[in-house]
Write a structure and sequence with these properties.
heterotrimer, A alpha/beta, B alpha+beta, C alpha+beta, A: alpha/beta, Rossmann fold, five-stranded parallel sheet, 5 helices, C: Beta Polymerase, domain 2, five-stranded mixed sheet, about 40% helix, about 15% strand
Amino acid sequence: MSIKSSILKRSIWVFHLNTGSCNACDIEILDALTPFHDAERFGVKLVVSPRHADAMLLTGPVTAEALPKVINAIEAMPRPRMIIALGSCGCGGGIWHDTYSTIGGVNKLLEILKERGIVVDAVYYVPGCPIRPEALLYAVASIKGIVSKKREMKIYKAE
Amino acid sequence: MSHKPLKLIIIAGSKGRVTVKYPYQEPLITPEFRGEIEIDPAKCIGCGACVKACPPNALELLESEKEVILRYFVGRCIFCWRCIDVCPVNAIKGTRNFELATDKHTDLYTLVVHTRTTCEICGKPFETTRMQRYIAEKSPVTEEYASICPDCRKRLLAETVSARRVGISEHKE
Amino acid sequence: MLNLEETTKYIELASKSGGQAKIEGDTVFITIPPDRLVDVADTIFNKYNTSFRVCAGVDERPLNGHFSLVHLFTDDKAGLYVAVKTYLSGESPVAPSITSVVPAADWCEMEARDLLGIEFTGRETYRLVLPPWWPSNLYPLRKETPYNYRPEPRLESEKLGYSREYGVIPLGPYHPALHEPEYFELYVEGERVVDVKYRGFHVHRGVEKLAESRMSYQQVNFLAERICGICGFVHSTCYALAVEKAAKLDVPERAQFIRSIVLEVERIHSHLLLLGVAFHLLGYDAGFMHIWRIRERVMQLAELLTGSRKTYGINLVGGVRRDVNEEKKQKTLEALRELGREFKNFIEVAISVPQVKKRLTRSGVLPREEAVKLSVEGPVARASGVNKDARRDLPYAAYKYVSFKVPVYTEGDNLARVLVRVDEVFESISIIEQLLDKLPGGSILLTDFEIPEGRVGVQVVEAPRGGDIHYVVTGKGAPYRWRVRAPTYANIPALRVMLRDQPLADAPITIASIDPCFSCTDRVVVVRDGRIEEIKLTQLVK
């Protein structure tokens, strides 16, 4: 099912899932709902249960202790499922991408979910440390199709 | 006393609307903000000083037979700008860009590809062409010395020293 | 204030117990044999009225073949740090537990047991930090264990606790009232909470082991800042000050002033954050929105001064990276003036709202004796009548040049904790104005220095939540051992006293009123063996 279908172009309800982050990205998510940035203009709302959510805002490198609970929470979301990985920890594992206590970011989590048969329909990456509230709004606007994405892979040759 | 909470209406009314309607309006950023970095491929010499200084290993040096690739993964970058502090040729520049969201993982990489030179004596590849030129310009060694790999340099030095001890006076650099 | 005549009683105590004492700067290092540990700890904590901060285990087998255990106390009236060290055998280290005389030492002893394998006699032991399925005999902080070895994780979560007499209500790990994953199991009788079980340490990421292996001295600053996103600059400054103290570096004064200014900016932002969250949990959402609107100016001020809204990244060992010029100074003063005026206007309205006032008064009471016994920190201690503030007792950075008041209330309920924080915001604004007035000239970064091996540095910095302590042993190019204890670590065991016999509806606001920062608490992952074991909070506080 394509995420660009018209179902998700209306309002996106998000559930905030903290898998062991330092909380800087989490308070910037709350900051995006306050009067200065006002994410509710786009219809974004924080919900209390994964069962009501369209997208999951994932912060933190997934720690070994929190891993079973994260899998339960993602499994509880109804299809179509979308994960928005926030920050340096979410996109690539962060500054502790190879320690004994973390899994290493959202890509390894997707592998584990695939083995257990849980399908995730789309993944979005938002780099930043911590992300600005405007970066989160840019990601939401990009999902809805208001702006087009700007970052692309670049290969340069030195000679 | 009991009408104090109603004073909130006065406070809210006098403030008015404070929302900045990004992306239709300019966001509130100061000129000091640390955003993405940009590597200038014309200046980079492939020395790896930025790779050593990067705390989350977002900058990595991948080596193969023919090439040395400097890979910047913006997904893991913490935007500390330490790489800008330590680069010897000022090849990295800081921007204020924060609009980096994407849905493809490969969009987050930037690669700078360098070619490697081979040693004059043993033929093994050892450093990038740019770095060789940089060393030859900046330090008081000859072009010939700069084109030999470190293992061969050590071997030559040992041979020269032992030759001098024995008594042969030929001086090779 | 520092008072060197007080050190004589520590030197006498050390020689009477068969050990030795050494004084370096403002720290007294005492080394004693393990069998005298309980008596010495009893004297120092109970007779001399010091605060217990943390205990740290160090694997010194590459250096001298032993493990060692260090207990850190601070004598607030005399302004001294006291470090009590014992050496344990290298093969199977065993130490006596001091929890019978110092109840606050419970968690840190269990952490040393989990991470290093040091056994403790004279107490109940349990697994604290690592997940229950972690293999036994894999101790992450021992020098032979690599930092990136990952055992297979377990993917099923465990079942809920069960009780015949009481109802069981699980709170977490993912709950709309909590921002971080932590698990509370509340045992209720009708509406009253009878007991609490706590299972935390979901945010353990292996910070201390990482600093010893793949990082260098300057990179650890950025690592320390990300221990906690709300009080990150405190950790980064405390680490830099501890290393500078160990290596005896002469940091330029202007850098210390800039560090103090940014520390106070962080304090304002953190207190405003907590007040907003507290109002939201009470149901007063208008208060939440208005306070975070006022707080936004502080975030923009921080971005102007340092380059990023949070996790500032300007600290290095030897100074700071960004300077304050005249234009920034004027903008700062103007922003602070407006902030003070708006906040004063608003907070008078907010505290007098009937639902806020009635729900906060007389709920979650922490009496003064419990506060002293558990060595709680920060506004939680100051709201219960304990007059403790590291900025005044153990002055660091530029705090010896400014004068400020420390607010202390005696009721010990939720309202007192809120009022302490409101007063501290106004004091911080006044401190920043004084510092900007007295800013000296000079450079901001020391570049030419060397850090010798084998030195020890201890430093306490007053974070918005209490006193944060870092203990650094220097090694070659990177720290040999780094122990961090954040203030929430000492405040969580006090929750059992505060939550008992309270109505269930008050549980979230009581938990939030200690301003918990679970990512500071959990930074280390402790691996435990085999069985799942829930710890009762009854076991945490003896």
